[in-house]
Amino acid sequence: MTESEFTTCYESTLAAIETALDNMDNEVDFDSELQESILTIEFSDHSKVIISRQLPVSQLWVAAKSGGFHFNYLAEQKCWQDEKTGEELFTLLSRVCTEQAQDDFQLKPA
After folding, report:
1. CA dist., res. 83 & res. 33, Å (int)
2. CB atoms within 10 A of CB 53
3. What domains lie within the chain, and their CATH numbers?
4. Comparing C-alpha atoms, which of 103, 66, 109 is closest to residue 89?
5. pLDDT tier at 20 (50, 70, 90 boundaries)?
6. How far apart are CA 91 and CA 89, in angstroms?
7. Which of 68, 80, 75 lies closest to 14, judged by CA?
8. How many CA atoms lie within 13 A of 70 on its CB side?
9. What pLDDT score was predicted for residue 1?
10. pTM exceeds 0.90
């Protein structure tokens, strides 16, 4: 994947996450902010989940209370997969956000 292709893929993924956050149908208290290609989701206890890109290794990284996660893009499956566990990005985000929000937080891609 070229740097340009990676950047396009990453930016469209951030847009999909923002759309999923906007479409949530429960009353979880959180704020999200996209700044300089870094998406931060902050919860009422001030804990954060941070999604960023690591251009030199063409990875999407997620930082959460439970740890750091590194994702590779699988073009054939059109998804991001954690390099250690194989967990899909939206599944992991739902899990770590539920943990930090202490409430059901299901992110569904559009």
Report:
1. 26
2. 20
3. 3-101 (3.30.920.10)
4. 109
5. very high
6. 5
7. 80
8. 8
9. 86
10. yes
Radius of gyration of the chain (CA): 13
**What are the structure tokens assigned to 78, written together?**
């059109």
- In whole angstroms, give the CA distance from residue 16 to residue 46: 23
* Pairs from 46-52 (Cβ < 8 Å, separation ≥ 24): 47/100, 48/100, 49/93, 49/96, 49/97, 49/100, 51/14, 51/17, 51/93
pLDDT in tens, 46-96: 999 999 999 999 999 999 999 999 999 999 999 999 999 999 999 999 999
24 pLDDT band, cuts 50/70/90, is confident
Copy the structure tokens of residue 66: 């439970």
